[in-house]
Amino acid sequence: MKLNIAVLPGDGIGPEVTAQAVKVLKAIAMDFNHIFTFNHALVGACAIDKTGNALPDETIAICKNADAVLFGAIGRTSFDLDPNAKIRPEQGLLGIRKELGLHTNIRPVIAYDDLLTKSSLKVKQIKDVNILIYRELTGGIYFGDHTLSEDGNTATDTCTYNRFEIERIAHAAFKAAQSRKNKITLVDKANVLESSRLWRRIVQEIAPQYPNVKLRYMYIDNAAMELIINPRQFDVILTENMFGDILSEEASVIVGSIGLLASTSIGDKYAMFEPIHGAYTKAANKGIANPIASILSAAMLLDHFGLDEEASRVREGVDKSLKLHITTPDLNTKYDNISTTKVGDFIEDFINHPDETNLN
Amino acid sequence: MKLNIAVLPGDGIGPEVTAQAVKVLKAIAMDFNHIFTFNHALVGACAIDKTGNALPDETIAICKNADAVLFGAIGRTSFDLDPNAKIRPEQGLLGIRKELGLHTNIRPVIAYDDLLTKSSLKVKQIKDVNILIYRELTGGIYFGDHTLSEDGNTATDTCTYNRFEIERIAHAAFKAAQSRKNKITLVDKANVLESSRLWRRIVQEIAPQYPNVKLRYMYIDNAAMELIINPRQFDVILTENMFGDILSEEASVIVGSIGLLASTSIGDKYAMFEPIHGAYTKAANKGIANPIASILSAAMLLDHFGLDEEASRVREGVDKSLKLHITTPDLNTKYDNISTTKVGDFIEDFINHPDETNLN
Ligand SMILES: CC(C)[C@H](C(=O)O)[C@@H](O)C(=O)O
Ligand SMILES: CC(C)[C@H](C(=O)O)[C@@H](O)C(=O)O
């Protein structure tokens, strides 16, 4: 298969981890006789530095010409501390989601047996957790009007959803549930928000089309608690943009490190693959960033094109690195000094020689 | 002291748990020679049943005539399942917050030594956690416009904050931090929301007035994770309405049961005290509801009027009940069948005879 992949490493640890994912994809291409080409483009704070714009037109063009986008992370502490900045790195990420129409964000949360003890949660709480979060990604309060009064003393954000946006992701989530445990939990705040009541109404309407899927509702505040005290109750979680942001980052505690969570963002025409973690400016260029979320995003990219065997090979490599403790310091207690690059190299090696790779 | 207390038990488990708090307050009044009078009023689904209105005028009047309000819980499953209901129990709670101008909601999150093993989190994660959440309670998306388009296909909620609202609670939170560990964390989503940027800007402006307090910022998604992986990093958390709702319910996992978390809501003229848990319709009338959150809300009521010794007596009673496992099933593994009323009776007994009460 020929794939043209746009690579947007972004800021902070983005470039380091994305480089490992690219390395892994190159190894896959080699071993399985695919032709993957990679076109790098700027996004986020580094794009602001060079062009004054968090999402340069050239980047959009490269993404639209590609078969898939591999995204790193954006953000920088100086912008976080400056609420007055008009141009912000996040505009790069939000902009590309909007430009490519990436309405459906899928975030798997899987408790790896080899990592159960790394979690802040008790092992018995998290064993066998396997959750798929469907987060709506191009609507809600993220993309409503954001206004500041002239005197600078009143700020307003608007959260809007329409039937079409909700139906689109709801159908996708129900279908996903059908190939899993047939359970879906809609998370909202329908006791307060009109938009949540619209979600609840529409999802209720759609549900009979998937008679084998059991639908439940949960308020976001309650879900934030239930996700910790009983995560095994969840199969597919369906939710709006902001609640999905919060729940998915929270869910990383189950897995043991946010450096492990990958995601797929799908639109009608385009698809993008990115770790759910941020740019962690402080950790950048130290070789300590966990590349696994980015590498697993690459595996999701392979899934997306039906390259099942290839994706499995990547995941086996990841599993093996976890089992052998070839992991960065966020996960390791066994060895010191296993760097971002070393983890990438190990998984690359595994892909090249799946039967030989071992601790060496 | 003479106190006129409005009692709004509400729905579900509200009446059962509130009855225990009233019992405890009566015992305190008796022992310390206060005169507490209690006026009960309707709110929530039970008020809808009887009057067609979740917050009848009479209830508002009773609250406004009182020195303090003791609130139970509102909500009912049938309303949760019906996104089309125009009259909803939550209007009672949100309405009373607005009517009484209860802008500052304070939710303590304290890991009890006797309960460390009850948490889903590992003991080493939560030992000594002591967080005070300052949640803005009468602004934000809760109280903005909620509109549905005429065709019913588009819903909008509006989140607005102004300088005054932010300054008011920010000063209160900084002052609280000064009598604690001098640390404050503002939780927001300033990388996306204009209202969050306003919060960040104003809190930044105010901070120099409290030079000994260390101010940090954290995005809500990150905070939802950090609250679990490293809760001891927090002292005072300051946040807007919706994020406070989510974080405080999530924080209950640290304490071991949501049945333990109490809150104070303060306005310029009025004050209300309520558990942070909901109505749990399913648990109602079974004698299994944990009354401790309600009883600790009564302790916060006593604090509010400077009745320190009285409040301490209540808390000692609670501590003793926890130590002796005189607790409802959510916490107990030692004894079966310790009911809501029994827990209330035990704490009442302790208040009457603090030196004698023991397992009997
Ligand atoms: C960086 C930020 C704008 C983004 C979001 O909130 O969507 C991130 O947290 C994520 O989850 O991808
Ligand atoms: C019942 C609901 C409207 C309420 C809220 O969201 O504020 C509750 O969850 C709370 O935290 O007091």
How does this structure look, described?
2 copies of one chain form a homodimer. Chain A folds into 2 domains: 1-102 and 267-360, 3-Layer(aba) Sandwich (Isopropylmalate Dehydrogenase); 111-257, 3-Layer(aba) Sandwich (Isopropylmalate Dehydrogenase), CATH 3.40.718.10. The radius of gyration of chain A is 20 Å and the shape is globular. The first copy, chain A, is built from 13 helices and 12 strands. Helices cover 41% and strands 20% of the residues of chain A. Chain A has 360 residues and is an alpha/beta fold. The longest helix of chain A is centred in the first third of the chain and has 19 residues, at 14-32. In chain A, the strands form 2 sheets. A 10-stranded mixed beta sheet of chain A has the order 2-1-3-12-11-4-5-10-8-9, sandwiched between helices. The first copy, chain A, has a two-stranded antiparallel ribbon with strand order 6-7. Chains A and B meet through strand 6, strand 7, helix 8, helix 9 and helix 10 of A and strand 6, strand 7, helix 8, helix 9 and helix 10 of B.
Bound molecules: 3-isopropylmalic acid
Per CATH, the architecture of the largest domain in chain A is: 3-Layer(aba) Sandwich
Q: Strand order across the biggest sheet of chain A?
A: 2-1-3-12-11-4-5-10-8-9
* Number of DSSP E strands of chain A: 12
- Give the proportion of residues in helices of chain A: 40-55%
Q: Which two protein chains have the largest interface (Cβ within 8 Å of the partner's Cβ), and how many residues from each?
A: A-B, 65 and 65 residues
| CATH-defined superfamily of the largest domain in chain A | Isopropylmalate Dehydrogenase
Tell me the span between the first and last alpha carbons of chain A. Answer: 33 Å
